[in-house]
Amino acid sequence: MKAIRLLVVVGLLGLTHSAFAAKPCEELKSEIEATFKTKGVQNYTLDIVTNGAEDTGKTIGTCDGGTKHLSYKRGGSAAPAKAEMNAEVKAAPASAVAAVKAEVKAASAVAPK
Fold first, then answer.
1. Domains of the chain, residue spans
2. CB within 8 A of 65, min separation 6: which ones?
């Protein structure tokens, strides 16, 4: 009988964990930011990161059914992270990337050596 109770408790704990992972990322991020604000935490970044993506922060929660996680980094920064910039470049149309490369090449040809 004790073994059955233990199995039920372990099963319920597993369900509660997956219920938190199913929460939308923006909702979870808002809740965590509100908690940080009430505790006086400042100078941090909290990013939503797709699992498997490059991440240098500490994972503090999972969301969107476990497909993404929230990454905490101490010391907020106004500059975008390198991984974010790479993702933006990859998402840009090839024509836009080619245009920027052409502009850089033209500018370097004009610049005195």
1. 17-77, 79-113
2. 21, 22
Give CA–CA dist 105/92, Å, rounded. 19
Task: Match 């010391």 to its residue by tokens.
Answer: 75
φ/ψ of 58, rounded to 5, equals: -95, 125
Which residues neighbour 61 within 8 Å (Cβ) at sequence distance 6 or greater?
20, 28, 32, 69, 70
C-beta of residue 45 within 8 angstroms of C-beta of residue 73: yes
Tens of pLDDT, residues 62-108: 999 999 999 999 986 544 555 555 555 555 566 666 666 666 566 55
| Long-range residue pairs from 95-99, CB within 8 A, at least 24 positions apart, any chain | none
